[in-house]
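Dear support,

I submitted the protein below through the web form. The confirmation email said the job was done, but the results page showed an empty box. After a refresh the structure appeared. I'm attaching both so you can tell me whether what I see now is the final result or a partial one.
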Amino acid sequence: QEGMPQTLSSTSMFTPCGFSPHLHTSKEGEQGGLIFQDGNLTSASLDALIQHLIPTTDYYPEVSNSQYNKQLFIEPHELLSRVCHKCIEQQRLDDPVLDKARIRKFGPKILQLLTEWTVCMCADFAVIGHLKDMIHRIAPCDEAYWKKMNQLLQTLNQKLATLSHGQEGIVKISAAVSDKLVAFKSKPPSIQREILSVCSDPYTLAQQLTHVELERLSHIGPEEFVQAFVHKDPLDGTKTCFSEQKKTSNLEAYVKWFNRLCYLVATEICMPAKKKQRAQVIEFFIDVARECFNIGNFNSLMAIISGMNMSPVSRLKKTWSKVKTAKFFILEHQMDPTGNFYNYRTALRGAAHRSLTAHSNREKIVIPFFSLLIKDIYFLNEGCANRLPNGHVNFEKFLELAKQVGEFITWKQVECPFEQDPNIIHYLHTAPIFTEDGLYLASYESESPENQTEKDRWKSLRSTILGKT
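What the results page shows now:
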C-alpha cells in the first residue's frame, strides 16, 4: 500500500470534514442523512453510513472501526456488495468505454479498500465473488491492478483456509478434552500425573498459560462479538440481520477454556492425599496467579482464583491453615468484584497503557478477563438503542462498541514472546479433571464433613459415584 492515501484517523473520521466529499454536511443539524452536534457525528441513516465507505479518486474511508457496527444491520457480504455496486455506479465501470485515466486514480483506492476488508472483516466465500468482479472491471486499465488484485484474491483464499483449519483444530481439541472432562468420578489412581511433576516453576507455567490464551484469542474475530449480540431490527419487522446460524464457536470455546482451567486448578488441589501436599499445590498456584498478573494475563489469573475459591477447595480449612495466604489475599483484592471490578479495571488500564508504550512483545501483553469484557459489551449493547426515534443509527453507541472491540483486536494480535513447552501445553489441554461431584467427594475424603448436610452429601456421593452403600 506504499504511496496510497492513508486511512483517516478516528478523530477526523467522526467530524464533517472526515466524510466523503459527496456527502454534503454542515457543522450543525442534518445533511445527507447525517446528524452532527458540536461538529461530531451523533447519528446517521444506514444508507448515509454506507455511502461513507465509498472511495473516490481523492477520498478514502476508514474501514476497521465502522463496518463491525454496521454488521448489526446488514450482512457483511451484502454490505460489500452495496459498496462495490455504488463504486461501479459512481465510477461508471459499466460504461462500454472506460475512462482509463480516472480509473488509474480510483484503482488504488478500491484496491486498498478490498485489502483492508480481507484483513479487518470476516472472510467468506461471497467476498471472493465481489473481488473477482472488481478485478475484471478495473484490470484492463492497468496490468499492475491485475497482478495486485490476484494477489489479494490469493491472500483471501489463504485466510479462509486458515480460519477453517483453526476452527477445525479447536473442535478437535474440544472433543479430545470433553472425552476426559468426566474421566474421574473418584480420586485418580496414584499413577495419575500431577501439575508439579510436569512443571514446578510458577513463572514457566504462567508463560505457558499465556501461550494458550493468546493462541485461542487469535481465532476470535470481531464478527463473533457482533454475532453474539445480534438482535432483530424493529424497522425490518421480525427479520433478523442474519438469517444464518450464529458463528461464535471460537468465542464459546474460549469461555470453555476458562471453565476448564478453573476445574483443573481445583482438581490439582483436591487430588493429593496428604494435607502438606495440598497446601504446596495451593501455594504453587498462588505464585502462578501472581506471575500471570505481572505478565498481564488477567484471564488465567481470574480462572486460578476462581478455582481456588470453589467450595470443595475453600472448605479445606486444615489445608489452608498450612498456606501462607497473604499473597492470595492481595490477588483476590485485585480481582474483587466490588465497585464493578474497580481494582481490576485500574490494573487493566495500567497494562493497556504499558502496552501502548511498549518496546517488546513481553510488555505488550494484555489478556483481559474475558467474561467481564463480554458482559461490558453486552450491557453497552443492551443499554443503548441501536436506532434513535427518528430511525437513524445511534452512532455514538457504535463508536464506543468499536472502541472496546478494537482494543481487544489489538491485544489479541500480540505474538507470544515466551518459548513454548509442548509437554506443559499438552497437559493443560488433556489432563483429566474432576466433575463438580468428583471435587466434593475428593474434598470430603481429604477432610471429613463438618456438619450433617456435608455428611449426607458425602454419603450420597459415595453411593452414586463409588457404588458403595
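Response: this is the final, complete result; the empty box was a page-load delay. Residues 181 and 433 are 6 Å apart (CA to CA).
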